[in-house]
Amino acid sequence: MTDEILRLMAERRSIRRFKPDPIPREIIENLIDAARWAPSAGNLQPWHFYVVVRQDRRRCLANAALNQDFLAEAPVCILVCAEPGRSASHYGDRGRELYCLQDTAAAVQNILVLATAYGLGTCWVGAFDEYRLKSCMGLPEDQRPVAMIALGYPAVENQSRPNRRGLDEIRTYI
User: Could you tell me if 39 and 103 are in contact, meaning their C-beta atoms sit under 8 angstroms apart?
Assistant: First the structure.
């Protein structure tokens, strides 16, 4: 099983071309369920997930993301928001400024890995105008958009594996 999880992590790619095929709701629910099992500081779970299926809203996401049109073309986008106040309630400024972001990043990674297991392609997008996104999506004031995930069946097959730095370059035992 651990080999399978590592294989999925290695196979995951950033996909920006999708088939128009719909994604079954059960799969989407499983992806959000995987996200909620991510670790979070103090188990505060400072996140909210918007499953964006409406074309006009996906276009809004793409426009706010510096015109990354693949967000509008993917059949589903998941907008991941942090709830900084939830983290701050226990950890003060560090919770508001750091922990809630780390927690949502862990949730995003869970989604990406499980989506790969379902044969779905994803792209984690963090480049966007936060205020424009909040405005066009009508987000509550207490939520901060952190990431968007374009989600769909890949229109391209067998993308090559990107280079990774060697273990000796990135690891030090102390």
Answer: yes
